[in-house]
Amino acid sequence: MIQRFYFLIYNPSSGKRRISQELETVITSLSRQGGVVTACPVLPGREPTALLPRLPVLPDAVVCCGGDGTLHHTVNGLVQAGLELPVGYLPFGSTNDFAATLGLRRSLEANCAAISRGRVRPLDIGGFGGQTFCYVAAFGLFTDVSYQTPQNAKNLLGHFAYILEGALRLNLTQSWNARITVDGQVLEGDFWYGSVSNATSIGGMAFPNQQAVVLDDGKFEVLLVRRPQSLADLHRLASDLLAARFDGGLLYLLHGSSVRVESDSPITWTLDGEEGPATTCADIEVLPRRLALLA
Length: 295
Hints:
The chain is of the alpha+beta class.
């Protein structure tokens, strides 16, 4: 049996605080397969981006227990520290979009066993102005819901908290004027929503064209929704969304490895559901097969 050293990062606030009840199961499962585990909680001032560059001894792999946000900070910590280590992901969040995309919605023991096998699955991730994201960078309606929903509401209501918070924040008169370039193709106008993603689930909802999503093809999916200018446009948009009809009128689905979003006033982004920067020029690129996932 090969003995491996795992540095386990866990977020005690994720997923209705279930991690505190399951931590012993995680450590025991990894240990039974020959693992040696050092566990460290995410605390204020001790986020993964602060912990990982200071590791006194390099582990064989990093295991992340938490939601997609915890994974986001873990991967950023590794990239910023210049560490090319395999990552295991044990999803405990309220929504777990990336876990759904990766097929990790199985038993905790099964996910631990997959990590212990040591098989690496290379995945594309995104680069965004010095930061990285695992599966989505987005702006527009609903995109601030994840990081503005109080943690106690997430713990109490789970994914329903996101839906409720989104409904309370919905403002259909709002839009974002931008010039968007995807691998040389340019679109301009007022947009309700834009995302650059590599996932079959975003915000707990299925991506409208899942067969287009390939996790290691060097390209991300760019979904854009123009702001309707009339009631007829609004009905048309609803019909297009239901039918997954991307005809380039109000709804676009493009594929690219390089995206630039320019605007006169700053646009606030969310990265993997975490609050991102506000900028008038966002340059997004695919980092091919940069994440080595144990799955």
